[in-house]
C-alpha cells in the first residue's frame, strides 16, 4: 500500500535496489540509465541527463499491460525521475499521421475545443460505470503553437467521480510525416515544477534524425495528414480510425462544429493518469 510517494517513484527506488523484493519486482524490465543519448527509433533520439531513467518501447508496453493500461502500439518509450520526491512520468509516442499543416496556428479556438472535450467525455461517461467517469473542468493551459519548434501544447484539468483532480500536459511535435506525442503525467500540485523539468531538461534534448524534421517535408512524395492542429488536439488518431471504418459523414459534421467525441484519445491517457494518482493517494 502506498502513501503519498507515488507509484513511479517507488519503482525507481526499486530500480536503485532498495530491497531484495523490489529488485525481483523490477528485474522483468530493462532500465536504461540516463547520462547518454537514447535512441527512440527511426524518427528521433533524446540526450537524457543522468538524473533520469528510461524504458524503451517494448518495456513501456510491457509495464502498461501488466498494470492493465492501454497500449497504443505507437510507444517510443517513457522517462522517469531518479529523485523519489518527484512523481511525474513522461510518455513518448510517434504517430505517422502524414504531414500536418500548421495553417491553423493563429485560429485555434480554445472555447470551442473545450466544449468538444466536455461533450465527448460526458458522452463516454454514459458507457462507464460509476467511479470510472471523467469530467472535464476546464483548460489548465489553453492550446498554443510554437512556430519555432513546431510544437503544439495544451493541458486539460479534469476530475473523477470522487472529485480528485488531475491533468494531462500534452505537447505534439510536428515532424516530416507525423507527430511525436510528449505527455507529462502529473497533478495540479506539482505541475509547475514538473513542467519546468520537461521544458528545460527534456524537450530541448529531443532531436529529430536527419531527414525527419518538419522542414524536410517533400510534397512530391510525402503523404499529407487528413487533419490539422485543431483536430490533433481533439484526438486526430481517433478521427482517422473512424474515417476508415465508415463514419466519415458523421465526423465531417462533428468536425465542422468542433463537436468531436474524443473517446479514444482521452481514454488511454487519463486511465494512465488516474491509476497512478489513485495508487499514490491510498491510505492518505
List the helices and strands and how they pair.
Elements: H1 7-15, H2 20-26, E1 31-33, E2 36-39, E3 44-48, E4 52-56, H3 57-66, E5 75-81, E6 89-95, H4 110-125, E7 134-146, E8 151-160, E9 165-174, E10 179-186, H5 191-202, E11 206-208, H6 229-233, H7 236-244, H8 248-256, H9 263-280
Antiparallel strand pairs: 1-4, 2-3, 3-11, 4-5, 5-6, 6-10, 7-8, 8-9, 9-10
Helix pairs in contact: 1-2
Describe this structure in words.
By secondary structure, the chain is an alpha+beta fold. The chain contains nine helices and eleven strands. A hairpin with a 4-residue loop joins strand 2 (36-39) and strand 3 (44-48). Helix 1 packs across helix 2 (20-26). It starts with 6 loop residues before the first helix and ends with a helix.
Ends distance:
10 Å
Oligomer: single chain
Series of secondary-structure elements, N-terminal to C-terminal: HHEEEEHEEHEEEEHEHHHH
Please identify the structural class as seen in this structure. alpha+beta
Sequence stretches where pLDDT stays below 50 over 5 or more residues: 1-25, 237-274, 276-284
| Helix content estimate | 25-40%
Largest sheet: 8 strands, antiparallel
Rg is 19 Å
Shape: globular
Strand content: 25-35%
